[in-house]
Structures are given as C-alpha cells and as structure tokens.
Design a protein that fits this description.
Length: 145
C-alpha cells in the first residue's frame, strides 16, 4: 500500500469537505472558520492543508476572498459579484449589488485606464444603526452639512 496514495485520498476528501463548507456557508467565512467547520467532520485535516486548498480553489476561480475590515480575509464561492460595505464602528458588513459601481467603474476606466475590482476590498463607513445611535450628539461640522 503506498502512503502517497493514502495521502492523495485524504487531500481529496479534505477538498470535498472544504467545498461542502463553502456551499453551506451563508455569507463570508475566514480561513479559521472554514478550518473549524472542516475539522468538525475531519479532525485530521490541518489548517495548512486548508490554506493550500483555498489557494487552489482561488486559482481555479471557484472561490474569491475579500477584506472586510478585520485582520483576516474572508472567503466565499465565486459567482455573483457583489460589493461590501463595512461599518467601522460595529464591523458589520452589508453586501450590495455590484451595479452600484457601474458608473464609477466606467469613469475610472475611461479617465485613468483603471479597472475597478468591486469585490476585493470593502468600502468603509458608518452603518445606519451606528449613525442613529449617535444622532443625539451633533458635532458642529455635521450641523452645517
Ligand atoms: Zn486580498
Ligand atoms: Zn463577498
Ligand atoms: Zn455600525
């Protein structure tokens, strides 16, 4: 029995489990979250194996990652492109249709020859709840706008 074949089988099983976790995920998962979900089924799969699998899935364009204002990147299946708004106060992220970027995208391309990546980085700002929570406190600068 070759151990190489055994190892290959384990990697295949790990890949399938990573794919299942990503399909079942609602929203964005960090590599750590993917690792704990995979290890619930296959405790023998190491975090470095999962990183390698995620890299391979990205090269195959099955998976994309984004940065949403936390230190760790988040992953999800490739597919419908969307944008992200991340609140810098509560860290909540909202997905928005990428069509919001159509006009900006066209303009950046025409003027600067720059192609916008709508998904990779989130736009940062303040969400409605956090703005409302501060509504009682009006700073002089906001009062004039
Ligand atoms: Zn990145
Ligand atoms: Zn996303
Ligand atoms: Zn917020």
């Amino acid at each position: 029995m070759s151990t190489v074949r055994g190892a290959a089988k384990r990697v295949t099983a790990a890949k399938r489990t990573v794919a299942e976790v990503l399909v079942a995920a609602r929203g964005h998962l960090t590599a750590d979250e993917i690792t704990s979900a995979v290890q619930r089924e296959r405790p023998e799969v190491s975090p470095s194996t999962i990183y390698r699998i995620l890299e391979e899935f990205e090269e195959l364009e099955l998976v994309v990652h984004a940065h949403l204002g936390q230190p760790a990147a988040v992953y999800h299946l490739a597919g419908v492109v969307h944008g992200h708004l991340t609140c810098e106060v509560c860290q909540r992220t909202v997905e928005i249709p990428s069509s919001h970027f159509d006009a900006l995208s066209r303009e950046l391309l025409a003027r600067y020859g720059f192609q916008l990546d709508r998904h990779h980085l989130a736009l940062s700002g303040r969400c409605r709840d956090c703005r409302n929570a501060r509504a009682g406190v009006v700073t002089p600068r906001e009062a004039t706008t």
